[in-house]
Each structure stands twice: as C-alpha cells, then as structure tokens.
Design brief:
The complex is a heterodimer of chains A (226) and B (409). Chain A has 226 residues and is of the alpha/beta class. Chain A contains seven helices and ten strands. A six-stranded mixed β-sheet of chain A has the order 6-7-8-3-9-10, with helices on both faces. A four-stranded antiparallel β-sheet of chain A has the order 2-1-4-5, with helices on one face. The chains are: A alpha/beta (226), B alpha+beta (409).
Chain lengths: 226, 409
C-alpha cells in the first residue's frame, strides 16, 4: 500500500534497549505508513511495544535501525534539537494525564508550543484563546488546571496539541483518566477533527475507543499482527 | 527567547516562594557582607588616614639608620640600634637649614621603674624636645611645656601622658608633685590631654612619661645618640626642598662619601600616609575575601536548590521537550532562573549592605563610606556566581531524556 499521501512512513523499524547481548528487543521490524487524513488506532497488551512505537512516531525516541520518512524526507539521523523543532511544528501530543503545567492558566498552557516556534507574545494569547474557543472553552481561558474538570483539562491539552496545526495528532490513552461521559466527549472531538482532515494516531487499550478509528493495528511482541 | 525565559522564571520563582526566599537569603547575606566589609574597611582606613593628616603635613621625621627599601620602616623600629644620629645633627639643622622652621630631637624610649610614694610601676620614658609638643599641636590638660632652660639643661622635670596621670593621681592635680624615675625625683610640670586617637607616630603618648632630651640621655638611657629628629618645614610646598636640604646637612655631619648610603632615613607625612594606605587597603581586601567565602556558600546553596528544582520539574521538562523545547531552551530557562534570583539578591544586598555600613559607621565613629563601586561589584558578583552555580543544574535539565522525564512520577 504505497501512497504519495503518506505523511509518515516507517521502514523496518527496530528498537532495542540496552547493550548487545542483554538488549531487550521491543520493536522487531515494523513497517507502517500513515497517510494524510488517517485515523489510526494502535492497540496491544502492555509490553507489546505500543508506547515505544508511539514515541518513535512522535520523534521522542530514535529507532535502533530502520528508516523514518516524514513527508518523504528521511529524518532518521537528525539531531535532538532538529527533532524538537519538528515535534514543535508537525506533531501534537495528548497524554493520558493531560500534562498541563499546573501554575499557569489554560490559555498560557495552550500557548507553550508557540513560545518554541518564536511566535510574538501578543499573537500567542490571541491564537491560544481562539484555539480554546473552538473547543468550547472560550469562557475558561484564565482558569488554572486545578479549576477545570478532567474532561476540560484534556480539551485544553487538545487545543495545545493543535495550536501549531500539526501534521499528526498523537493521542496516548486520551481517555485513560476520564469517566465515560468525558470519554465520549473527547472521542467526539477527535472524530470531528478527523472529519475536518486532521490525521490522528491513537494509542489505546479500550476497544470502544479503538473502534472509532478507520484503521486498527494490533501489536503483539513488537510486531504488527496481521 | 530570553524574554520568555525571564517570564517563565519569574513565574516559577513566584510559585515557590519559600524556596525562593531561602535561596535569596544565602545570596543576600553573601553579597551584602562583601559590601559591608568593603565599606567598613574603607571607613576605618579613612579614619586612620584623617588622624595622620591631622598631625600636619609640614612634618618630617629623621630617624637613625638607613632602610633597605624606600617605603620600609627605619632601622630603629626593627630593633637595630644605630648610634650615629646625635644632638649635634639637630643643632646643625637648626643653624643652617633654610627650609626648616622647627627642630625637635627625641630620644629612644625605655621601660623604666617609676615610683610615687610606695607605689611602683613600669612605664615608658622618653626624652623629647619642647618643640616636639608645639609643632605637633599637643595640648596640655594642666601645667605647661618645658621652659627653654629646662629643655637645654639636664633638669629633672617631667610631662605625663593622660593615662599615667590617671593611674598615679586619679582625679587630683599632678602638677608640682614628684615621681621617682630611676635614682632621681622629677617634678611634674605638665599633663598632656588625652589623645582622641589611639594612634600616634610615636606610639602611645597617653602611656608615656616625657622628660627633656639631655636628661633622658644622661640619667635614664645612658646614651648620647637620638632616636630621631622631628622637623617642621617652613611650608607644605617646600617639603621636598626641606627633605633634600636636611639630607645634605646630615650627610655632611656624618662625613658620608658619595658612594655611601644614608645612615638615616627622612620620612614625611606623605610617606607614612602611603604606607598606611597600602596596609589598610590590604586589610580591606582581606576582609572582603573572607566575606566572599559566605558568598560562595550562598552560591552552593543556590546550586543545590536549582538541582532540587530540576528534579521536581523533571516531568515538566519532558513535556516541554515533547512540545518542541530544544535543549538550549531548557538550558536558558534554568540558567535565567538562577540569574534572576542572583540579581534580585544583589539589589537586596545593596540595600542591606548600605544600611548596615551606615550603622557600622555610626557605631565605629567614622563617616559612612559607600564605595560606589559596590553597585557594579555586587551585580558582577551576582552574575558571575549565577553563571558558575547555575550552569550545572541548567545543563542537567537540558540533557534529560524526554521520555524518561515524561514518564517520571
């Protein structure tokens, strides 16, 4: 399934932790393409390597071997700071625990990625407030994370992830810390984003969540189960 | 980016008020003690220099024995007894020096047993010319100076320092009373006023009994040479001419060949000032160096706390990296945080340092001298120590692996 639309293309990627003979093999040769507009879910038992695969796709971890093409450009050998810039502009993260900074307001949290893309300060606030409004939190921009519910916090995190219009949104167990009502809400938001063309990769162990995705990949012992 | 780092660090510092203030405390104590030590040192130095200036800038002192160094002390002070300087030299200066107004020879001093009635005590005795007192503005609490005939003869009269008078006579008048120095009785004719300063070119005047030069030479010391000759130049401008003239006269008196070194030393007030200035500057520097130790301790404190801060914010660092922060962004954020604490500390230290210096001056009785260079110095110290102690924690933060940091609980 080769497509010119592939945003991300992994070729025979392996990841080992540790040295030589004692190395733990976590990813054992995965080839994968994520196309523009994809809505892909990765599931698997704990220890299957799904988190490691997500970190590799998210450029937080470099593979031991194999190739990573982003927009048909090989970025396997880039330096840490170059990868940071790509993460900043092309990848948006949502985490299970939201990972908002507790001591700053909602809009300031949303604006954090803008700091690292050198957006002028005046524009930062404007864009952050717009992003929050789009996700239905326009009246909560000055709230601190501890003044928001779990679902609201996750929505702030989504606004943050989308602030730089990333190529791909990576969601790591986005509903893992939420009740069923909030889960529905978050999934609805993700579905809506995908309808508008946002590429989404979701890592989850919940079948209910995975079934929303258009493509579903199951990982077993560091390999894609076919 | 740097501006952003400043915003971040202020936020982070505000969020941890207790930790921030404890860190500040170390820095403030460190920097302010350096400022205080500099100011106290400077104030004490000015106090001493003022007192020496007060003695008079037209004064010269000839002492027996040459000196190895230009600025060094005369040989006599080092305990070498040089017998070449005599009353004949003093007379020669008096007779032929154009630029010298007053000549006042003085003898060595000695510790001697003094008796008054049944009391016995050891005091310092020194022979001094009457002109010594007039040219150096000594004031008498009671009685008078030596008369011309007392001064030239071997008369048994004495002038007491204030402390000795208090010791021997308490509140009663001493003039007209007798004390026994060695084998003879001396009539007390005068008592000096207590000196404001503890310092005098001759040592501690308050604790000295002063008798005429010839009396001291013949009856007490048993020597015919002098410790020195105190001179007053005709004017302050002529001090160098006077110095040269006196040197010429004494060299002729001592029959020194051109190739021979001086066997005496002429020092002016300026020389003494320069010497004491050098010494007190060193003292100030020494005090400041000690204070710097507390600054280093403060700096280590800040490093410690920054390391704790890096540890506590591990997860945050991981998140920032995931959101696109480069290593150097994280590095600057932590370094700037350290620097912000240091600079705030520096300003607080300036306020406290100047305040304490002012109080110390009040207590010490000198004018407050706020060394203006304290301001740049404090800032440079803050910045320098901020860099030295901030780089390591900042590097540690920057080098954290994003995933390890993100998973950190």
């Amino acid at each position: 399934m080769k497509s010119k639309d592939a945003i991300i293309s992994l070729k025979n990627v392996r990841k080992e932790f540790g040295m030589n003979s004692q190395a733990t093999k976590v990813i054992n040769g995965i080839s994968l393409e994520i196309n523009k507009g994809d809505y892909m879910a990765i599931t698997g038992a704990s220890g299957s390597g799904k988190s490691t695969l997500m970190y590799i796709v998210g450029l937080l971890l470099q593979p031991t071997s194999g190739e990573y093409l982003l927009n048909n450009k090989n970025i396997t050998k880039l330096s840490g700071d170059e990868l940071a810039e790509i993460r900043n502009k092309k990848i948006g993260f949502i985490f299970q625990q939201f990972n908002l900074l507790p001591k700053i307001s909602a809009w300031e949290n949303v604006a954090v990625p803008l700091i690292y893309s050198h957006v002028p300060q005046s524009e930062q606030k404007e864009r952050a407030i717009k992003a929050l409004s789009e996700i239905g939190l326009g009246d909560r921009v000055d709230f601190y994370p501890n003044q928001l519910s779990g679902g609201q916090q996750q929505r702030v995190a989504i606004a943050r992830a989308l602030i730089n219009n990333p190529e791909i949104l990576i969601a790591d167990e986005p509903s893992g810390a939420l009740d069923s009502e909030s889960t529905k809400q978050i999934i609805k938001i993700l579905d809506g984003l995908n309808k508008k063309g946002q590429t989404i990769l979701i890592i989850t162990h919940e079948a209910d969540v995975a079934k929303h995705a258009k493509r579903h990949i199951i990982l077993v012992d560091g390999l894609i189960k076919t | 980016m740097i501006k952003e780092s400043f915003r971040h660090s202020f936020r982070s510092l505000r969020a941890n008020k207790m930790r921030t203030s404890l860190t500040l405390l170390g820095i403030v104590i460190g920097i302010s003690s350096v400022i205080i030590m500099l100011s106290v040192g400077r104030g004490a130095q000015e106090l001493i220099l003022d007192q020496i200036r007060g003695i008079g800038s037209q004064l010269l002192m000839v002492t027996a024995g040459g000196s190895a160094q230009e600025m060094g002390p005369p040989a006599a002070i080092e305990g070498i007894i040089v017998k070449t300087l005599t009353l004949r030299d003093a007379e020669a200066i008096e007779n032929s020096a154009k630029y010298i107004k007053v000549v006042a020879p003085i003898t060595n001093f000695t510790q001697t047993r003094i008796r008054k009635g049944n009391e016995e005590e050891i005091y310092t005795v020194q022979g001094r010319d009457k002109n010594f007192f007039t040219s150096r503005d000594y004031e008498f609490a009671e009685g008078r100076n030596f008369t011309e005939s007392e001064n030239k003869g071997v008369s048994k009269v004495a002038i007491l320092g204030a402390t000795i008078k208090d010791d021997l006579f308490k509140n009663f008048s001493a003039v007209g009373e007798y004390i026994r120095i060695g084998e003879a009785n001396y009539r007390i004719i005068g008592v000096l006023k207590k000196k404001e300063s503890a310092l005098s070119i001759m040592g501690v005047d308050d604790e000295t009994i002063m008798i005429p030069v010839k009396t001291a030479q013949k009856n007490v010391l048993g020597q015919d040479f002098l410790f020195g000759i105190s001179l007053q130049a005709s004017s302050e401008e002529d001090i160098d001419l006077a110095k040269a003239e006196v040197r010429r006269i004494i060299r002729r008196q001592h029959r020194l060949q051109t190739s021979e070194e001086d066997d005496f030393k002429i020092s002016s007030q300026q020389d003494a000032l320069a010497m004491i200035e050098t010494f007190t500057s060193l003292l100030t520097l020494f005090l400041a160096a000690i204070a710097t130790i507390s600054l280093i301790v403060g700096g280590i404190g800040i490093m410690n706390i920054m390391l704790v801060s890096v540890f506590e914010r591990t997860k945050e660092i991981g998140l920032l990296k995931a959101l696109g922060a480069r290593n150097k962004d994280i590095f600057y954020e932590f370094l700037v945080e350290t620097l912000v604490i240091m600079i705030i500390g520096a300003f607080m230290a300036l306020v406290i340092g100047f305040g304490v210096s002012y109080l110390a001056a009040k207590i010490g009785g000198w004018n407050t001298i706020l060394a203006p260079e304290s301001i740049p110095l404090a800032l440079i110290m803050a910045f320098g120590f901020g860099i030295i102690f901030g780089v390591y924690p900042a590097l540690k933060a920057a080098k954290l692996d994003p995933i390890t940091a993100l998973r950190f609980e």
